[in-house]
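Service request form, structural biology core

Requester: graduate student, group of Dr. S.
Request type: structure prediction, single chain
Budget code: on file
Notes: please return the result as structure tokens.

Sequence provided:
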Amino acid sequence: MRFSAFDFDVVTSPAPDDPEGPAMTETAAPLHVLSTLGLMGALQARQAALEQALGRALAIEFAPTKVLIDRLAEGAPADLAILTAEAVAELTESGRLAPGGVGLAASRVGMAQAPGQARPDISTPAALIATLRGARSIAYSGAGASGLYFAALIARLGIAAEVNAKATVIPSGLTGALVARGTCEYAIQQISELRLVAGIDIIGPLPAEVQTPTVFSVAAVAGAADPAAAARLIALLRGAEMAAALAESGLEPMA
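Core staff response, request fulfilled:
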């Protein structure tokens, strides 16, 4: 098993400074959002519209759920967190997140390869096993929900040693970038995250029989500076326009 250095661990989407854009409340600080990478595409597509509806800027930090859990434990300033449903439940129980977290979207794990190649069969568990055994190299994430799921899956399928012998496990980030650079033959990750990478071909989701969709939920951070604004943002994130953006990014909206 190899661990590689990667382009980034955390991506921050700062509030745009656009004089022709919507007027922001001059005295209001940006709302700080910690979000899993799985929602990066949808949130970046809707950030300007969300800011206009709120009348204030958003500072969004994107990283795998495990990294964000550590950030919250360190006391990172945040008003809202978008994490796996399990993480939201645990952090709510521990008092780090405020009660009232709600589901936003479900996500399925898929596989990608370089464009122009014959697509392998991954339609059944047996076909997936054969494809993984025949792969030259595979990339998956060590900290993301998809990577934790995939590591457990190959162990359950009895092929963990074979796969990990030729796997590049990145600390965090987008596994599809390794395929785009020609470093790996296949990438495993949430389909919404694979779609963030240009120059790759998404083969499809892993078989339904072994698929465990990840549910992403949102909750306000306990002690947030502006709970009312956080509540307004949660309502916007569950609106029809956001649902369309989630679907466009490869997620399955829950509202």
